[in-house]
């Protein structure tokens, strides 16, 4: 009995010594429920509109889906996905939906080059898309055989206005309207906060027109500028905005003028890198708040 008591006493002393020593060690506690930050997605249709930003990422892996290539990495310690979407409304819409489903971005910026509609804008100027619009959704008024076509009389057609016909019947009247996609206020504020750092030209708010058209008719460009309030045109932003809005993802379009027929501004492909460099500053501003 005396031996058992002595053993228990020694065991208690040993445990007390272990606890005392353990308390003297430095320690760190790791939460197993810590969540990864959601990425920001930067979109550009062509290689010259995406690969400069992709080159800024660290720890990059590449994934492909359809026409799109996704560069997944980090920029200044924050997760970023650069999506080279391919040109046009369809490629961009598909790439946007795939990117949202795969990477669950907290925000999307669609950026790249564009052709000016506003004579006051010069090659190198940047348009922040306070609004974007699909400028290829139209309904033509009836004209009989032999009466030709009158594209300046076409009516806008909102494909999301109703579940009925967009062109005929009672629901068609509801669809005879322009649908604008409005930019996210926080992304727009981040762009405004850094616009003074852009030296290639001025940075203004405007309306970005998108459509699978390449408009070289000055009367057509003037009509779009007058009727839709368009500042510049390209083939992607509005389709990305439509998909982003359907998923509830904050969105902003940023487009640099690479040419402007309305004032003789000739095409300059170097503007693509200038735009991405500006978007880099926008992202730096935005992620300051995202890390909080």
Topology (SSEs and partners):
Elements: H1 2-24, E1 40-44, H2 51-54, E2 58-65, E3 68-75, E4 78-84, H3 89-103, E5 107-116, E6 126-134, E7 138-139, E8 155-156, H4 170-175, E9 180-182, H5 185-194, E10 203-210, H6 218-228, E11 232-234, H7 237-247, E12 251-259, H8 271-290
Parallel strand pairs: 1-4, 1-5, 5-12, 6-10, 10-11
Antiparallel strand pairs: 2-3, 3-4, 5-11, 6-9, 6-12, 7-8
Write a brief structural summary.
With 292 residues, the protein is an alpha/beta fold.
Primary descriptors:
five-stranded mixed β-barrel, globular, two-stranded antiparallel ribbon, 292 residues, Rossmann fold
How would the global form be characterised? Answer: globular
Order of helices and strands: HEHEEEHEEEEHEHEHEHEH
Instruction: Report the biggest beta sheet as strand number plus sense, adding barrel if it closes.
Output: 5 strands, mixed, barrel
Distance between the termini: 63 Å
Query: What is the level 1 CATH name of the largest domain?
Result: Alpha Beta
Count of DSSP strands: 12
> Structural class, judged by helices and strands?
alpha/beta
The overall pLDDT average reads 90
Q: What is the percent of helical residues?
A: 25-40%
Please report which band the strand proportion falls in: under 5%, 5-15%, 15-25%, 25-35%, 35-45% or over 45%.
Answer: 25-35%
Write the CATH architecture name of the largest domain: 3-Layer(aba) Sandwich
As laid out across the biggest beta sheet, the strand order is 5-11-10-6-12
Low-confidence stretches: none
Into how many domains do the coordinates divide? 2
Give Rg in angstroms.
Answer: 27 Å
According to CATH, the fold-level topology of the largest domain is Rossmann fold
Q: Please, how many helices?
A: 8
The CATH superfamily of the largest domain bears the name Nucleoside phosphorylase domain
